[in-house]
Amino acid sequence: MKIFSRLAIVILLFSAACSSERNTFTNRTFHNVTAHFNAYYLADVKLKEVEAEVFQNYKEDYTQILPVFIPFDSATIQTNAEKLQSSRELASKAIEWHKISKWVDDSYYLLGKLDYYQSQFDDAQNTFKYVNVNSKSPDLRHQTLITLLRLYVDQGEFENANFTIDYLSKENRISDENRYELYRTLAYYYEKRGDKSGVIGALDKTIEYSQDKKEASRINFILAQRYQREGFDALAFEYYEKALLGNPPYERSFYAQLYAQQVAELNASKDLRKVRKYYDDLYEDTKNRDLKDVVIYERALFEEKQGDTELTLDLLHQAAKEPGSNPRVKGYVYQKLAEINLAVFKDYRATKYYLDSALTYINETDPVAIEITSQKESLDKYVLHFERIKGNDSLLTLAKLSTEEQKLIAENYIQSEEDRLLREARALQKPQITGIFDNLLAFNDRGSVSTFYFDNSVAMQQGAIDFRRTYGNRPLQDNWRRSAVSFQSSTAAIPEPTENDSLAIESLVSKLPSIDELLAQIPNSPKQIETLNLELEESYFELGKLLYFELKETERSIDNLETLVRVYPNSSRKPEAYYLLYLGQKDLAGNSQQYVGRLNREFPDSQYTYSVNNPDAASGNLAYVESSKKYELAYNAYYDGQYESSKIIIKSALEEYPLTRNTARLLLLDIMITGKTDTRLRYRERLENYIQNGQDPNLVDLARIMLKPMLSQAEIEKLNPIELNASDSTIVENIELAGDKGDSALAESPYKYDESATHIFVLVMEPKLVDVAKNLMADLENFHKADFSKERLRIGNMNMNRENAIFIISPFTNAEKAKEYYSKFQKEFNSEGFPDIVKSNSFVISIANFQELNKTKNFEEYRTFFKSTYK
User: Fold this and answer.
1) Which residues are the signal sequence here (predicted)?
2) Is the pLDDT of residue 754 over 60?
């Protein structure tokens, strides 16, 4: 009974201690221990496991300056969603079940980090702010504020970041561990802001408080890289030496030694043989088996500094073939090949293809990849038109020959390709080592070239060519002679050929076209020839335009445009071609006036004619405002039936302000006057020219509708106008052009269009509608996860005035991104109870314009600007 009584007392005491409400010593002790070593501990362990996996999965790129923080890998975060959810549940239990424990605030901090990692940034900010306000632990508050600072930097909220930095700078008793994280986060802040000196200063302070030798090695390596980039070789060498301490990974050690040697000796050495021997020794070192591409790449960069372009290119090509552990190195190799081909040889075609190869090795989200993609835009267009001209021109030349001549050329082409493959096989043939025992062998003629068939690439190539001539291209399969071939696979798998693979030769030969395949490519009907000529006409013009404006190759631009006007004298692009030739000759101090004369004789009503006649005409925003006013006057005169008066105003506007955003509208209005005052044939002719040369797709579509009543059914199908249910084109004219009537007022709008500015997407709703669209927030979140998962979009709301509540989706880095979101939202977003009128009235707006809108509260004024500028 005594034992039972004591046990009952213990149970009662234990039960009392379990209470999360009673704040007694026993209760606090119980909840502190249980919260710490159960819920909080397990939640923290799971979170750290995910952080460790992010670190392990990240592949450092030592050829570039390492980032201060290893970036979050969204793929790893998503893969570990279950583990993170478990961590979240455990941290929540520590809060709910142990309310009086001292680990509640620490658990809230874990929840904030979980929100941060899972891109729930608003929730993370709120949680961190809560911990900072409520926690009684200075260390936890400091830790929380430092993580909040990093979040602000991630989001580009530098004003909030500055406030946090200022607050922390006034705090006392910050622990060494927190100081380490603070200075590292400050380095990240300066890194994001492009302040190189700030990064170096912050990392120098970080080292003072570092307790992890491996992390210290990494920071020393970053400092060394940054000092090397700034030209402080002595400091760079010192920090590369420090980076070798702390047992770093072999790859970092390799790069630290390589770069240390560069800044200490290689860059300044005049003994080229010594430098080359150093690279040769690195290449031969078996420990560097997976870094051979890096060694050759660095050697290529060294030879480039010596001015040996040919050797540099050879080494870069070798580096592209060498094994390596970091695929991005191959991307940098191809990028360097592109750079040399562009700078030294002006070979745009080779540059484009090297950049294509570079992108296959560099992640699309990498800043280098974004830079390459941007650079490639004009090169892609160049190659498209260059290769089309080359190909179509050859095909049209062949089309003029007789069948026998075509066949002979095809045979000669195949023969030349076979000869080329044989030459390449001879180049690949490796001489065999001749030993003293060769004379003792029965087959003692295995000299410098092997006679054994599968050791002799030339014999293999010749055999493959002879086989193809006799039997054609056949799949590589057993028993191919048998009549019962249907019982076997007709598409046997062929291994990917390699340099040492016996199938490589046959694979190359099998790709050669047959005579019939070559002849089939030659156009043999008027329609095919017409198509090729239309493509050639377009490509000569587009290539000339590209060479002049984007590639700054004025002489080559003139060659292409002159070819266009000579070969295709009836081209609809001729007026603009004359104008570009005028500009080109003017730049080269040539005979530009000849094109002024041609424009005035052949195209007196062209905007380009007005431009060359008045080269000093006003331009820019002032010209746009003034031409808008004249457009409005001409528009009103036209609809009042004063056609001659309208025509005079249009001509005056085009002469004074020849090339503005209003030019296309003025010309179309002038064509409409032609429809009222001139012959039907002239009206049709001007509309067709406008459709072919128009730049504004909306106005071109309108011109198609105006042309439609004058066409037969066959001509309508060929024109392929847009689908509009309008039987009378005049109705459409009234609607479309009347919408532009207010352009002069728009020109004086308080809003300014900035393509590169940060934008937001706005939904404007009456407060009563917010309750009706009860699932709006959840549906927006799902919409973002499905279609914009990488964008890290946030949703906020505010009351702009009593009549309007607004929802804001942000951020979009530029206008183009915002327009992409707007377009997808209009087409695909749906939510129960969400009014269509709100959807159709949504808009995108830059931050600067939103501040202006917030002052005026005039949504209609901004929507007018939005429809004209963004749509």
Assistant:
1) 1-19
2) yes
